[in-house]
Amino acid sequence: MDALLIALLGCLLSEIGDKGQLLALALATRFQRNGAVIAGVAAAAVANAAIGAAAGIFIAPMLGSDARLLFLALALIFLAIGMIWPVKQPDPLANWQLGPFLTTALGLFILGFGDGAQFLILGIAVRTADPLLAATGGAIGIMAATIPIVLLREAMLKALPLRAIRIGGGVLLLLAGLSVAVSALHLA
């Protein structure tokens, strides 16, 4: 259950104000077809979470217990740095003529491939040996952060202090990552 909750909360927090939300907003505004855009968001989130979990299944047997814990610490630290780093507006995919579902699914899949949320899912899958729960929690967290943007559009972005959330969340994840690293290295 730890894998599910950590992945859900970490991915939810990391996606707030991130490029995925901004791209989903641009596509929802462009296409005006919420159902197709939400389905694309879900498909991309599930695919990226599954890839992260599958990589975790592959890597976990190669590492010892402390190395797996250190891997999770690095995932948390890299995610924290990504949250503190300023977010650039993603390409709105204006030239893509694939329709709302495919444009959203492929655009968010490409944008999320190798992203901090996917690396967090990988780190949790490596550490906990619960890749299904890590993927499920991560996908739910990504969807929980992105789908409200599709439904509420700019109103949600204006209502939330995005920069403060990203910096506060980044500091929180950085502290968690450093704490896990100290434990993995037996420094405390």
Task: Please provide a brief summary of the model.
Helices cover 80% and strands 0% of the residues.
Write up this protein.
There is one protein chain. With 188 residues, this protein is mainly α. It has one domain (2-64, 89-160). The protein is built from nine helices and no strands. The chain has helices spanning 2-15, 19-31, 34-59, 65-84, 100-112, 116-128, 131-152, 154-159, 162-184. Helix 2 (19-31) crosses helix 7 and helix 4 runs antiparallel to helix 6 (116-128). The chain is globular, with a radius of gyration of 16 Å. The model has no long low-confidence stretch (mean pLDDT 92).
Q: Biggest β-sheet, characterized?
A: none
Please tell me the overall pLDDT: 92
State the helix count.
9
What share of residues is helical? over 70%
**What is the SS-derived class?**
mainly alpha
Q: What is the overall shape? A: globular
Q: List the helices and strands in order.
A: HHHHHHHHH
Number of domains: 1
Q: What's the topology here?
A:
Layout: H1 2-15, H2 19-31, H3 34-59, H4 65-84, H5 100-112, H6 116-128, H7 131-152, H8 154-159, H9 162-184
Helix pairs in contact: 1-6, 1-7, 2-5, 2-7, 3-5, 3-6, 3-7, 4-6, 4-9, 6-7
Question: Which keywords apply here?
Answer:
single chain; 188 residues; mainly alpha; 9 helices; 80% helix; globular
